[in-house]
Amino acid sequence: MDRLKGYGKILFFVGIPLVPLLAFWFIPMFVSLWLSTTDWDYISPEFNHVMLENYQTILTSGNFYAALKNTAFFSVMTVIPTIIFGLVFAALLKKVMKGSTLFKSLLFSPWITPMVAMSIVWTWIFQPDVGLLNQILGWFHLPQPSWLTDSNTAMWAIIIVTIWKNAGWAMLFYADALSKIPNELYEVGKMEGTSWWQNSKYITIPLVSPTTLFLVIISLIDAIQAYDQIQVMTQGGPAGSTRTLLYLYYQMAFEQFNMGQATALSTIIVILTGVLAFLLFYTSKKWVHY
Amino acid sequence: MQQTFNRSKSVFRYAFLIVFSLMMVFPLIWMILSSLKTTEEIFAVPITLFPETLQWGNFSGALEMAPFWLYMFNSAFTSICIVILQVVLSSMIAYALTQLKFKGKSLLFNSILITYMLPAAATYVPSYILLSKMGLLDSLTGIVVSNVASVFTIFLLRQAFMQVPKEMIEAARSEGANDFAVLTKVMIPMCKSTIFIAGLIGFVSMYNNYLWPSLIVKSEDKYLITVGLNRFFTNVGSFADTWPFIMAANVLTVVPLLLLFVLLNKWFIKGISDSGLKG
């Protein structure tokens, strides 16, 4: 009887929440893997098993490598500046007495806003002739690129928006980490007459390195999944210059309904993310100080 | 000497902070200013910062062109349903993970952990097929049902439940409380603030969610605000004279979130830095 009650209890507390978790997370992962070995087109009821053909097609297509390059460029160019800005903001805030909550809120506010709405605003700011950014650049007699319509600059525009939205988010984690560094460490530094740069290099940066690792991993996963800003601002163009792996996946799956190749690509994205996260954890022993 | 040095340092600090803050907030200010300009003002070269007279008509104009109130209602309604279900389901499983013993517990936890790290996009094709089999494509129910499992909320609540003092749980048990009572009378009240934060972050991310909902809803009366806004932008964005209306629609979309942030900014700031699962 007690045992039966025990089963009932588990069935209630684990079983019920497990249903959506299985239906929309765990099982789809495996179904996706299975679909990637078929040539299903979503519409016809029939399909063939093609084994690894989809992977072969993807790994020999120029589109894939172009998208891979775009994804790598986008990820590096958003993750690193996001983290640096986050740390700089937090460091500036640390010694501020008055108004630190206000500054924190202002710096963080972009994170709250919907990416879709703000991408539309940024599209307007990036307009070549009448947009705010080029007018400001004009005042300083700087070159005024055509941003979203030029394949050389479109990715930079997407990167700027992404950093703008996430830097304040990274700041919050660094602010928390900095507040936990004991002040005595800096006092010792002061007595020894260390410079600002030495303080940062030997005290601040090593002591916040666990936060840095966390932020690198989370923002990297985020960067690989970036979609909204690309969809609103460029739809992957011009000339595929902002088409990332995830965007290519979206086009294959939900524009061309080439489910076999799309799921094969999603498997590649998953493996890539997993390998990167593993590598970061693995190498982190060298640069993260707990 | 030291003092003047310190003072000039702090002036620098404030100067930088003011410049950075302005840069971060400026797109929002620019959006609001643009939404109140005429077409001529919005296209003026050189730029005019402030509108001559505030064009409140842009808002009624935008609302006539597309049913933004309906889109916002759809978003708010689905987000609230999702958040409530997420919190209920996640607190149940978090309770099991922290208080109950069962086979496969660590397998379950590790699966959740891995899921947290993997791109959600990998689930989209099968989830889409599942929703279509259930007849839930192009419905708000479909959006709610497919979003109720939140790995993030499970993590946050598990973390919070682990902090509840054992003595309190044992005291409740010795008074004859069953698991359901322990969860609802001890765990949930003790972790109120974490639950509130999880709900808040869940609400914002669902209101802002775009990719997945854009695949599911196809008819206009079911659009979420993000879907409706982008559809509006792609439909009218090529006509120069519609930019003030687009900006007004943007303001309508963003302002509820900004108000929420102004009201609850301490919760957001504290909640997000606490949600980083340390190490």
Protein architecture, described:
- The complex is a heterodimer of chains A (290) and B (279).
- Chain A has helices at residues 2-35, 53-59, 62-94, 100-108, 115-125, 132-139, 154-179, 183-191, 196-207, 209-224, 228-233, 245-254, 259-287.
- Chain A has 290 residues and is mostly helical.
- Chain A has a single domain, classed as Orthogonal Bundle (MetI-like fold).
- The N and C termini of chain A lie far apart (48 Å).
- The model of chain A has no long low-confidence stretch (mean pLDDT 91).
- Chain B has 279 residues and is an all-alpha fold.
- Helices cover 76% and strands 0% of the residues of chain B.
- Chain B has 14 helices and no strands.
- The mean pLDDT of chain B is 90.
- Chain B has helices at 2-35, 39-42, 57-65, 68-99, 105-117, 124-133, 140-147, 151-162, 166-174, 179-190, 192-208, 211-216, 225-236, 243-275.
- Chain B has a domain at 67-226 and 264-275: MetI-like (MetI-like fold).
- Classes of the chains: A mainly alpha (290), B mainly alpha (279).
- Chains A and B meet through helix 1, helix 3, helix 4, helix 5 and helix 7 of A and helix 1, helix 4, helix 5, helix 6 and helix 7 of B.
Low-confidence stretches of chain B: none
- Gyration radius of chain B (Cα, Å) is 24 Å
Percent helix among the residues of chain B?
over 70%
Radius of gyration of chain A: 24 Å
Number of domains of chain A: 1
How far apart are the first and last residues' alpha carbons of chain B, in Å?
43 Å
According to CATH, the fold-level topology of chain A is MetI-like fold
Annotated CATH architecture of chain A: Orthogonal Bundle
Low-confidence stretches of chain A: none
Distance between the termini of chain A: 48 Å
**What structural class results from the helix and strand content of chain A?**
mainly alpha
